[in-house]
Amino acid sequence: MTIQQINDSLQNLFGNMGVSLSALTDEADFTKDLGLDSLDITDLLLQVEINFGIRIPDEDWWMLKTIGQLKAYLVTETFSGISQPQ
């Protein structure tokens, strides 16, 4: 998966949640900038797991607060092959 494919997939996920594509910057905080609540974030991360074929361990969820952090995490996970579903 390329970085462009990661970006496109994330844009689709956020767009399906009703988030404006113009708000999707790497610095955008899920809660403060995008207006997502805890249920929205849980749904987002579950959709990320499904769409990217990875599992995000519970201990990693707390550190994913911005789009940039999520992208960096996905690059690491998709390019390393770690955390693939069993």
Automatic annotation (TrEMBL):
Limits of the Carrier domain: 1-78
Phosphoprotein is among the record's keywords: yes
Q: Which InterPro entries match?
A: ACP, ACP-like_sf, PP-bd_ACP
Keyword flag Phosphoprotein: yes
Report the record's Gene Ontology biological process terms.
Answer: lipid A biosynthetic process
List keywords of the entry alphabetically: Phosphopantetheine, Phosphoprotein
Q: Which cellular components does GO assign to this protein?
A: cytosol; membrane
What is the recorded name of this protein? Answer: Phosphopantetheine-binding protein
One Pfam family named in its UniProt record: PP-binding
Q: Which GO terms describe its molecular function?
A: acyl binding; acyl carrier activity
